[in-house]
Amino acid sequence: MQIEREFGVPFPGRILPQNKWTQTALKAMPAEGRLNWHELFGREAPVVLDLGCGNGRSTILSAVSRPTHDHLGTDILPVVIRYARKRGNQRGLANLRFAVLGAHELLEQYVEPNSVAEIHIYHPQPYYDPKQIHRRLITPEFLALVHRSLQPGGTIVIQTDNPGYANYLRDVLPVFFDFHERIGRWPDAPKGRTRREILALKKKLPIFRGSGTAKTDLSTEDAVRLAESLPPPTFDADRRLRDLDRLA
Ligand SMILES: C[S@@+](CC[C@H](N)C(=O)[O-])C[C@H]1O[C@@H](n2cnc3c(N)ncnc32)[C@H](O)[C@@H]1O
Fold first, then answer.
1. What is the mean pLDDT of residues 129-152?
2. Containing domain of residue 227, as a range?
3. What is the pLDDT of residues 144-185, one digit of tens each?
4. CA dist., res. 81 & res. 108, Å (int)
5. pLDDT in tens, 206-238
6. 1 confidence band (pLDDT: 50, 70, 90)
7. 23 assigned to some structural domain
8. Cα torsion 238, 240, 244, 246: sign
9. Is 53 a member of any domain?
10. What's the CA gap between 67 and 232, in Å, rounded?
11. pLDDT at 112 over 80
12. Does 16 fall in a domain?
């Protein structure tokens, strides 16, 4: 059997014979209105989003190990989504879709409020150049959108190897979520859930990991109001950490 590896770490799942392949491409967003999860996956099941999914390693890991959950991974880079889709198709996964789409746009325009069980964000781009800081994904306004998208009790999972981003997250996440930082690696993937995590572990970078549930005593309107009072992510991302990005 052919085993795919990334930096020596096996890629989750098995490549099936071609007659078992699926189509994981989500090619078009609805012209009007929001995504209907039941129509998209053909069943009622908890929905998991992986935002900025890169080559889809974490999305595929979760889809393979949790057939009871439906998954959508998105990224703004078409090339990484091509890799993700190919691997998802080859593994015959029916509980998985990938789309080329920005995370903010997805939540704001296409995700029905209170409709998602889990939102995962692994290693959001820190954007080192001060001119690019406005592109950082995790802002208070974005976290209010995550809060709005999650079902009551829904979970955010987030991690970064950038110390500036980690400190910012420690400050803002507890406003919207009952958040707990995780000490130690994910038990389901001790060598890394994602491509970036594998690289960061090899470089022995400290990794901030954690998860939390959306606060149930915070209304969507209050979350938006609170977000307006919180600082934007203007931390120094430390350009010396940029080398790993070229590899990733
Ligand atoms: C450092 S990589 C991490 C990829 C993957 N999650 C991992 O951990 O290996 C950051 C990813 O976020 C994507 N990205 C950047 N801005 C985004 C946005 N606004 N919406 C969705 N994806 C974004 C980039 O294209 C890139 O693939």
1. 96
2. 37-247
3. 999 999 999 999 999 999 999 999 999 999 999 999 999 999
4. 21
5. 999 999 999 999 999 999 999 999 999 999 888
6. low
7. no
8. positive
9. yes
10. 37
11. yes
12. no
Domain total of the chain: 1
Q: Which atom of ligand 1 is nearest to the CA of 52?
A: 22
Answer yes or no: is 172 within a domain: yes
What is the spatial distance between Cα 76 and Cα 121, in angstroms, rounded to a whole number?
14
At 145, which CATH number?
3.40.50.150
Q: Look-up: residue for tokens 């690696």? A: 185
What are the DSSP calls for 129-162, one per residue?
A: SGGGGGG-S--HHHHHHHHHHEEEEEEEEEEES-
pLDDT greater than 90 at residue 243: no
CA of 53 to the centre of ligand 1 (A): 6
Taking CB atoms and a 6 Å cutoff, what residues make up the pocket around ligand 1?
51-54, 74-77, 80, 102-104, 122-123, 125, 137, 194-197, 248
Tell me the sheet residues that pair with 213.
Answer: 155, 178
Query: How is residue 208 written in tokens?
Result: 């901030």
